Amino acid sequence: MIVTVRRGADPDTVQKSLLERGLWVCRHDDPLGRVQFVSQPWSGHVDAEAIRALDGVEAVAEPPSPHPLVDALGPRAVVAGVPFGAGAEPVLVAGPCSVESPAQIEALAARLAPLGVRFLRGGAFKPRTSPYSFQGHGEAALDWLRRAATAHGLGVVTEATSEAAVPAVAERADIVQVGSRNMHTAPLLQAVGRAGKPVLLKRGMAATVEEWLLAAEYLLVAGAPAVIFCERGVRGFDASTRNLLDLGAVALLAHVHRVPVLVDPSHAVGRRDLVIPLSLAAVAAGAAGVVVETHDDPGAALSDGPQALTAAQLADLALGLARGTRAGDPRR
Ligand code: PEP
Ligand code: MN
């Protein structure tokens, strides 16, 4: 943003007003004696109209954004009747890494629904790093997931790992997930966008925030009615945790880009004992909710057992989130 000071106005006073509104600026004096302030990237979110209305401001120019549709999203989304983001209760998305059987997913849905979980997650098509790992039960698992969710009043979040899988996933899901390994796959993003369903866009494990926003722009250009971001940890230098949970990026998306963002602490740390504290930290940082892997018997899970909470632990998490929200959510 470039703010031009009206001739005769005091630039120092204008600069002070800009700073008070969260705009960090560099002063530029042009050869004609005009003073301009150029905003710096660490500025907070500001409304150009409010800046234009300031005393002493002649004009405000905004360079075109590379992701105008993302910028227009706003901090709140309502998906399948559930509000996400500013002012809303933290949304709980929970379920197993993989949908393993009709009985498993039905039993879990029955346990999770009374705890305040709004969406049942579970992979039917699994994007596994190794071709020898369990790849998911495919289309059949989509039906098991949908049936269990509907029976207990839950929405469905599940991943489309390929363009070929998009129609089947979009038919059964309330929110189509694009996984970390596919965040950069433009043809998949376009196919998911064309399906016309809200999307949960996980951050690529080595993606910059700007690349993540541009992936969302792909979805929106193609026709996605809503995008909810999901931070799931990025590659770090330290193997102590599975990934490095980037809560700075969560705060940036929530408070500066002002878009709804969830956090998946399960894939971020890879161990169940840290999932609850990180979920609370995520919501404190501005997350609209959490996506948490949950299993009826984590020791027997076909994938990602060590990071799965039991339903009893999920109940503790739900309680912790409710307390935290009442105690001091700055968005209220
Ligand atoms: C998942 O949520 O099932 C998953 C595979 O996560 P990610 O894409 O973040 O690795
Ligand atoms: Mn998993």
Set out the fold topology:
Elements: E1 2-5, H1 11-20, E2 25-29, E3 35-39, H2 48-52, E4 57-61, H3 68-71, E5 76-79, E6 82-85, E7 91-95, H4 102-112, E8 119-121, H5 139-151, E9 155-159, H6 166-172, E10 175-178, H7 186-194, E11 199-202, H8 209-222, E12 227-231, H9 247-257, E13 261-263, H10 265-269, H11 275-285, E14 289-293, H12 311-328
Parallel strand pairs: 7-8, 7-14, 8-9, 9-10, 10-11, 11-12, 12-13, 13-14
Antiparallel strand pairs: 1-3, 1-4, 2-3, 5-6
Helix pairs in contact: 4-5, 7-8, 11-12
The structure holds phosphoenolpyruvate and manganese (II) ion.
Count of alpha/pi helices = 12
Summarize the helix and strand pattern as letters: EHEEHEHEEEHEHEHEHEHEHEHHEH
Structural category is alpha/beta
Shape: elongated
| Averaged pLDDT | 96
Radius of gyration over all CA atoms, rounded: 22 Å
Tell me the span between the first and last alpha carbons.
29 Å
- Percent of residues in β-strands: 15-25%
Largest sheet: 8 strands, parallel, barrel
Give, in spatial order, the strands making up the sheet with the most strands.
Answer: 7-8-9-10-11-12-13-14
Helix content: 25-40%
- Tell how many strands the DSSP assignment holds: 14
Low-confidence stretches: 326-332
The small molecules bound here are:
phosphoenolpyruvate, manganese (II) ion
Please provide a written account of the structure.
It is a single chain. The chain is of the alpha/beta class and 332 residues long. 36% of the residues lie in helices and 18% in strands. The chain has helices at 11-20, 48-52, 68-71, 102-112, 139-151, 166-172, 186-194, 209-222, 247-257, 265-269, 275-285, 311-328, and strands at residues 2-5, 25-29, 35-39, 57-61, 76-79, 82-85, 91-95, 119-121, 155-159, 175-178, 199-202, 227-231, 261-263, 289-293. The chain has an eight-stranded parallel beta barrel, surrounded by seven helices. A four-stranded antiparallel β-sheet has the order 2-3-1-4. Helix 9 (247-257) links the parallel strand 12 and strand 13. Helix 4 packs parallel to helix 5 (139-151). It is elongated. Mean pLDDT is 96; it is low at 326-332. Phosphoenolpyruvate is lined by residues 97, 123, 127, 159, 179-181, 202, 232, 264, 267.
